[in-house]
Amino acid sequence: MRAHQHRRTRKTEGGFATTPRRGAESGTPSFTEQARKQQLIECTIDLISTRGYPATSLAAIAERAGLSKAAVLYHFSSKDNLTGATLAQVLDRFGAYVSERVARESDPLDAVVAYVRAMIGYQQANRRHVRVITEMLLDDEGGTRLKTPGSHDTHARWQTLAALLAAGQEAGRLRQFDTRAVALAIGGAIDGVIAHWLVHPDLDLDAAADELETFTLCAIERLS
Q: pTM (2 decimals)?
């Protein structure tokens, strides 16, 4: 009998037979563990976006994933750890999407416009992710107050836009203004449009993005 026929397998919590985890020896997650964690994050996104954060329990996540609660806890030791990892992934993907599109523009003014467009574009294409962000960062009384003061600045969002505005001023493409105040104003305008769209999905978000671009240009362009 050949050597590979003697190779033993083990069963995971999902009932799949796999070879012994090399990741357990190296201290890094195996491919199977990474896939299972991603599955749990996707289930968490689905539940938070449809049921809301309070109703998304570990038991509900386990049921959606077809696993036991103990299996979920094997990968994430608590609901806070799982939902925290979920929010972090959503924000990372959001940030990467915006950064990639801004980086394509060499002109500072075009970079600011790309930022505004990307902020709207990502949220339009990823409504579930927007729900996760609002459910986890905003309170339950109309979604207008932050649960934790300062949490809306996760991943230094306004600082990123302020840096783009400052670069435009240094290049002589933008008028002189307080970059922090204007970055917060533009960010607030984007948030306001998205908040309305979440409640009223009939809003023409493409037309709204056009208006936000015009609004931004009027606020920042240097008058000749």
A: 0.77
